[in-house]
Amino acid sequence: MASAESWENNEWGGTGHEPVRDDRREYLAHVLSRIKRKDYENYVVNAVWQRLADSYLQPETQRYVRRNNGYALIDLYFPEINVGVECDEAYHLGDMQRMNDRAREEEISARLNSVDGVGGYLACHVRAFGTFEQMEHDINQAVRAINRRKRELRPEPWMPGRPPWEVAIERGSIRIGDGLAFRTISDVYRCFGHDTKRMQRCYFSLGRRPYYLWCPKLGIEMPDGTVVSAAFGITNTLSYDGATLRERFESHGAGKADDILRVTFARGKDELGRTAYRFAGVFRSEGPMAEDPMTGIYTRVSEEVDLADWT
What we know:
By secondary structure, this protein is α+β, with helices and mostly antiparallel strands. 28% of the residues lie in helices and 28% in strands. It is built from seven helices and 15 strands. Strands 6-7-12-13-14-11-10 form a seven-stranded mixed beta sheet. The protein has a four-stranded mixed beta sheet with strand order 1-2-3-4. A two-stranded antiparallel sheet has the order 5-15. A hairpin with a 2-residue loop joins strand 1 and strand 2. Helix 3 (39-52) crosses helix 5 (132-153).
């Protein structure tokens, strides 16, 4: 326990009489308290996190995963090791719900296995419909499974206060599944050797043919699976497996196929609800759809971009 003198001198940084900025503290306080009106889920998520006792492994709560028709939310997810924890309440006991749960997990696995360069997706289920002892057993089992995966994969320590472009430049590349979230297009551009204060454009040359940087706003997906445009006059949608991007124009036709390699960072939200750009891959235009000339098709040709030629 810290002494009164320690608190006054504040050996952790500061005088003890002023707020200290700490990105890890703010992130964890937010993501571990965002579950509302779900008592069992809240208990399970926080119990797993506390028993892991590893503040260098990033947790995500309510992790969004696209499905063929709509989306799924994983109760607790660790992106660096591709492990999810699901709190199964009493309604999961019905035969129809069990079938739906199996289909849901298969889609989640297919999606996360296609974008994460780590071990295959591992789902840990905690039964919240039995005895307290049973629930505690499942929580401890989940913690052991997470620790095993950590030992197998040895993920890099989570450092939330470090700028993502510094991480990318140090690694020498950006890959799908890296988990890097850039706040602005200027921050993305730093990965390619340019330090600019503000970028108004979302599509421009990277100075090395045939590479362009593309930062499209993805459409807003509604609970029924429909997509609403997030950019004036354009609706961008990424396929369920992340391999195809569609760009639909409201007032004119899509452009012709070309050989430009679009290093693509899709605009969405980060875990704190802030605007964020995440690497979606390198895409090439296939031209307009035959059945819908106002929609352009882009196919992913690489899940990684090497930064050596720019840095």
